[in-house]
Amino acid sequence: MKRFLLILSALLLAGAFSLQAQDNFFGIKSGHLKYETQTSGGLQYNEVWFDDYGRLRNQHDQIMMEGMGNYNTEVIFRDGNVYTSAWFDDERDNEAAMTEGLPGLNYLNPSEEFIKQSQFKKVGTEEIFGKTCDVYTYKTKSLLRTISNKVWVWEGIILKMETKGALGANNSMMVTEFEENPTIPADTFAIPEKVKKVK
Which domains does the chain have, with CATH numbers? Predict the structure, then answer.
């Protein structure tokens, strides 16, 4: 159960950053962010690189699992595909699983369907990490569970996020570093050499 809750937090962040190819996803061209997430089961570190206004993204998550070591995931989004690798500690598996693109949650331009289904609404503004953020609340479904989300967003980029779900699945994520418009090497978003298609 602990592992499930921790992995769920990584997936929530991935879903929150998922892409819509037809639109700019973020209001700036590129970025490099680091986050810390307090979960019900431990501490998680997230690092995100993005380019082309969010159409390219690489996310690395490291979950500190007491008594089990560190669980890592790397997710690369590009060309409408999602490539995921997962491993414990230094035992990295070079074979990535490729899945279809996730449903787009674009904070710059959320769809009317998403707004209605998730009860998405703006509840105010607040300064986070020196940025004036719009604050939104919405609900999502995950494995038949309803999750309440609250996000602090600047230029479409999440700087803070709180989630509350069933069975104590409560997480709190906060940005700790943010570099705007850096030059990011193209190989940051390189497709893994070995890819296994997930049907």
Answer: 2-197 (2.50.20.10)
